[in-house]
Amino acid sequence: MTPAQLLLLLAPLGGVPTQTSWPSLTEADWPAWEYRMLDQAAAGDFLLVGEARPTGPRSGRVAFNIVDESNYHALELTHQTARLLRVEAGLELPLGGRLDSGRPGPSRRGWTEFVIRCEDGRMDAFVGGQRMAAAADATFAGGRVACSGLAGGVEFRDLRVQETAPVYFDDDFMRAEGETGGWEIVKGNWRVQSVGSPVRSTNAFNFTVDGAPGGAAALCGYWFWHDYEVAVSCQPHGTAQAGLYACYQDPKNHLLFACGPPGPRGQSVAEITAVWAGKRRSLAREALPWAPGQWYRLALHVDGPHVTGLVDGHAVVTALADGYPATPTGARLGGRVGLHAATTEGVTFDDFSVRQSPALAWDAAHLGLWQPIGEGLWRDTGLGPIDDRMRIEGNTSTASKLLVRQAVAGDVSIATAAVPPVGGVAGVVVGWEDEANYHALLCGGEPLTAKLVTVAEGRATVQGEAPLLAGEGPLPMALSMIGPTLRARVGDGIELTGSNGVLPRGRAGLLVERGAAEFTPPRIERPAPLPEVPRFEGAFSEEVSMADWAAQDADWTSVGQGDGEAIPSWWHKAPAYGDQEVSLRPTRPPAPQATVYLAAPEIGDRTGGYAFTVSPGSGGSATLLRASQPVASEALG
User: Fold this and answer.
1) Are residues 356 and 288 in the same domain?
2) Residue 561 · residue 581 · CB < 8 Å
């Protein structure tokens, strides 16, 4: 097996160079770079921000995650290029070269801002606001920072470290009228509005913009936020247009998702628009029903180069922003978020939220983020990540995997669709630590079968399997690892479940055995946490007439002997939808038997849904029931 056989070979439109040999290792001479150590150190996820100015033909370096003079990461800059390096044991290895960003490195005419972003084992280097290099490497995490000072090289100034964390922001505008709550009013007449008696309303506060036919904008957040979903509830009045900003750097550089009139021939539309260097371009537009006075939930999802606009939870427009060289996403750093309105009669906004995007989308342009494992050839055979013709092809006579380089801690899921090779296998992988420890969903073989397999310490265990029917087109498949549970889905109706007791962290990706398989672009996500059951509203606790309704146990009701039951039970009044989880902590020694009910058809119905019964003590047991019938049981010590 040659080194070239281990490399990922991609040929997307635009001509990304392919590597056909191992990068050469050279000795890193720390004293020769004349490094100047900074007082600041970095830890966890962070941004390293500064300014650079080339003064001659030589390059300059910023070293970070410094363990010592022989072990660190570095960004090397010239006036034309940028590249990321790892120096380990005194030897340097290139990690990520110049990307096709459409512009050179730091300008010789003056100072250019650069940003190094290190998050979750991934590094991105931005120069002048555009990404110039990307790589995934978790060899070093945190440490001192230094910059070189070679004459005739690149000068650096104003270096600083900014710690970062996953984006999580909410605003229900519950504050006094006249307070902005940290929002920056860019344009328009914005104000917090409340009803006369806030304690008697469940939606007493909102953020309103009055007539602004030329457009209105209000912003919040930070310039370094990236890969997120921003959402808001809105009520347009009259012929109002409402929308959301993302990746907002300034009025001439941002992304906008807007809904409402006017569209072609006066109809209402949903549209994603990119503005870069003052030039506006429509990335996607679709007709949309839009009624004055109706409440809508708008959301704009930015995930690398992929941008999606949603209305009431439904994706209505999708765009690939990287297809436009001058866009605020993909090759851009990110930016603030905000609200948009164009109206003569006003728009009311409420329940604004921003969440970190859970997705790790396939990005064929960045070779350093994916790694082939095993003997085989992987290549991109299509034209673009949102083009139906795009396929990722794996071809091997034995077995091969294509994995994201960074491990994903905790819950993770991967979804794709594949055409398994005749007689071979195609599948997906999660929790990959090494070739002796991972989970996989395997589809193929003769007869055609789906298998959920766990490999632990080199030993494979089939946790579930089901026969498959041969069909036309790619076979949808998904595998998730959520807490102690593995869940696999194949096609429209096959579901396999298993236990994850040994792999709390690992990598995810694709798998092929004995042949050539085609995959649609995989989507790797960190599943959102399960929603909490609605709780009682304490705003009414001081209202005497509503004291019973507002009590702490008011959202529960009891079913006892008077209702024909021998043993009383307590039920939550609010229905819970989707995936559910219930956890209880006894505050006193339990009874001889305790039961938790879930997904019951109605309050008090113990015969439907699920039940988990525990009989503690010596000789006790734990039993799971479905529709009153036991499906699993375990003895307790």
Assistant:
1) yes
2) no
Torsion sign over Cα 265, 266, 268, 271: positive
Which tokens belong to 379?
């290549």
My answer on whether 207 and 325 are in the same domain is yes
Which amino acid is located at 39 in the chain? D
pLDDT of residue 381: 64
Domain range for 97 is 17-163
413 plus 310 within the same structural domain: no
pTM of the model: 0.62
Nearest partner of 362 among 544, 545, 510, 199, judged by Cα: 510
Distances in Å between the Cα of 456 and the Cα atoms of 429, 453, 503, 526 are: 13, 10, 9, 23
State the pLDDT at residue 367: 44
Q: Is 562 helix (H, G, I), strand (E, B) or coil?
A: helix
Give residue-wise pLDDT tens across range 139-191. Answer: 898 899 999 988 888 999 999 999 988 888 999 998 888 788 889 999 999 99
| pLDDT mean over 345-364 | 78
Encode 510-561 in three state secondary structure: EEEEEEEEEECCCEEECCCCCCCCCCCCHHHCCCHHHHHHHCCCCCEEEECH
- Output the domain CATH number for residue 447: 2.60.120.560
Calculate mean pLDDT across residues 479-495.
Answer: 88
CA dist 607 to 576, 577, 601, 625, 631, Å?
18, 19, 9, 10, 14
Q: What is the dihedral of CA 252, 254, 257, 258, to 10 degrees?
A: -20
What ranges make up the beta strands (E) of 200-268?
205-209, 212-220, 228-236, 241-250, 253-260
Q: Do 513 and 374 reside in the same domain of the chain?
A: yes
Residues 318 and 182 in one domain: yes
Let me know: does 272 contact 255? Beta carbons within 8 Å. Answer: yes
Over residues 600-627, the pLDDT tens digits come to 888 888 888 888 888 877 777 888 888 8
Range ranked top by mean pLDDT from 18-27, 192-201, 301-310, 479-488: 479-488
Question: Could you please report the per-residue DSSP string of 422-460?
Answer: TTSEEEEEEEEEETTEEEEEEEETTTTEEEEEEEETTEE
